[in-house]
Amino acid sequence: MDYVLLIEQLLNGFQLGIILFLMAAGLTLVFGIMDLVNLAHGSLFMIGAFVGGTLTLVTDSLVLGAVLMVPAMFAIGVLVETIALRTLYRRSHLDQVLATFGLILFFNEATRLIWGPEGLAVPLPDFLEGTVALGAGITYPLYRVVIIVIGLLVALGLYLLVARTRFGMLVRAGASNREMAGALGVNIPVLFSLVFGIGAVLAGLAGLIITPITQAAIGMGEDVLILAFVVIVIGGIGSVRGAFVAALLTGIIDTMGRSFLDVVLLLFLPPNAAESAGPALSSMLIYILMAGILFFRPQGLFPPRGATAAP
Amino acid sequence: MLNRLVVAAALAAIASSPAAADIKIGFVTTLTTPAAVIGRDMRDAVELALEHIGGRMGPETVEVIYGDDEFNAQKGKQATERLILRDDVDLVAGYIWSNVLLASAPVVLSAGKILISANAGPAPLAGRRCHENFFNISWQNDQTPMALGELLNQEGIRSLYIVAPNYVAGQNMVAGVERVFTGEVVGKDMTVWPSQRDWSAELSKIKAAGPEGVFMFYPGPAGPAFVKQYQQAGLIETIPLFSVYTFDSISLPLFQEAGIEAVLGGKMTQFWAPDMQNEQNRKFVTAFQTKYGRYPSFYAAQSYDSMFFIKSAVEAVGGNVQDVDGMRAALRKAEFPSVRGKFRMGSNHFPVQNFYERTVVVDADGNWTTSAGPVVLEDHQDPYAGQCEMGG
Description:
- The structure holds two protein chains of two kinds.
- Helices cover 75% and strands 2% of the residues of chain A.
- Chain A is built from eleven helices and two strands.
- Chain A has a domain at 3-218.
- By secondary structure, chain A is an all-alpha fold.
- In chain A, strands 1-2 form a two-stranded antiparallel ribbon.
- Chain A has helices at residues 3-34, 41-59, 62-85, 93-115, 142-164, 166-176, 178-183, 188-214, 220-235, 240-266, 271-296; strands at residues 131-133, 139-141.
- Chain B has two domains: 2-139 and 278-353, Response regulator (Rossmann fold), CATH 3.40.50.2300; 143-270, Response regulator (Rossmann fold).
- Chain B contains 13 helices and 14 strands.
- In chain B, the strands form three sheets. In chain B, strands 2-3-1-4-5-6 form a six-stranded mixed β-sheet, with helices on both faces. In chain B, strands 8-7-9-10 form a four-stranded parallel β-sheet, sandwiched between helices. In chain B, strands 11, 12, 13 and 14 form a four-stranded antiparallel β-sheet that branches.
- At the A-B interface, helix 1, helix 8, helix 10 and helix 11 of A face helix 2, strand 8, helix 8, helix 9 and helix 10 of B.
């Protein structure tokens, strides 16, 4: 097989995995620590794209737009948590699903009112255009390399935050045993607001950095959200490390399926059948992966230490 | 108590509904989701047509009731059912998406009403599942890509890579190109629709395959996203990109905003373009630009046509829309001023018409638009017409 294509596809899968990780990191913390099923996490992805995109267009700089987006998304996250979600913690998961689904509708409609139905196109700055040669005949779009680097830096930062700081200790304590952490005097409402704000920033960042590639569109978060849920289930709910590994795994398997499954199927199926079965099967691959992992490890790959069985 | 209140409120609502127009037309399109930009263009064109005909068809007043398919076949079917059962419309038009139309058509046709597609032209409805009460005022899905296949042959492209979404229209488009294109198809990817917005894997495969041309079909806002990535992957300078239904008045402003100049001069095929020279089209395009401040898309052109198409039939039966046989006979003649110029209705109730080369150009005001070129396929009838045995 053509190794250049193989490596390029690995990079593609890696890049998809990075986006999924940014989404899943916030989602897994919110789910794991706050025990809140937040379907509106996809909306934060979308809002990040639109708010960050607008800031980019206003300041005429993607970098500046991204920097300004961070406090904006943090504020939006804290606001949403305080106004809408705080009342939901004691309710059942079904109530939470219903309420956060309502939030999706609200945010989609609000986005349409503010930005119109046509979405938002964010141009790529000139210095990020074009491709880079990675040696051995491999050329790869520069911007996608930048996405991978940013994602790895964020992952590193998040690791340091969770593993090396007092705040991270509280987060880990919350993920392991919420009641006990509260009983020991951790200020749970503040912790929750901060966690949700960070989740919102990460989701918004994911939305913004993918926008120069896909453009911002209403409802863009919903498809990513489903994949992000798959990621956190595979990785173990509440575990950032699990989210990282599972996101890369999901991204790479999804991309590899899309690229090579039809070729593989051609080996033992007639061309017509392979052509139609390929896309269908490749879109199922990650769910098959999830089912397989859950069969052997019902808690996911890296369940937080001491976490009781998933609710 | 509560129940009684609800019933009373419902009765009051029914009693107080305003006096309906003489003729009610249901129009199903996409009014929410990102694809709502298409639905907006269609609705704007319908409203403009109603304005131009003074809200009347013959002696009767007309009202158009819109249904939202939410970019989803099941929701589209439900919207159609609501129009038929609750609003009791006299006929139904619209439909952007082939899968929505295929799911909804039985609802309208089994109610004995006339159905007019203003965009979708799936193969089944043109062939084996054609119906005496179904008309299409746009094109059959295969026709435009067949014209493109012919264009590729004329341009001397010998190897082609195909990328399209994996749903009815995507499959029809690909089938259309493959039917006519005489060179070799070196690769083909059918992607998940409508969720996939990142084509990194497909673009890597295209680069590895190194074809002389790429054919792609992504309607709505997905098109600009694809072209942007095609450019970012460094392919747009090396491998020419051919498409259908992707560069139009909806996507070109987005390309212009993003400064993707590589699309200028891009070639496609279409039955219509904003600069086509005939009286009806000049009137339509000028009025549309004045009223909405943008170029109409082909979706808008077809929707505008659909209202005049219906009007011609209503006038033929003197406003008695219950006379479905009379309406059908008039619709078969298709005697109305179309923005595309002269055409005729084929035996399967799909247009037999010319397809033109169409190029992305800059207009006198600096806006990006498309311009009609020479005829690629003349008086073209879709390949499924022969399978259609009109019986009802």
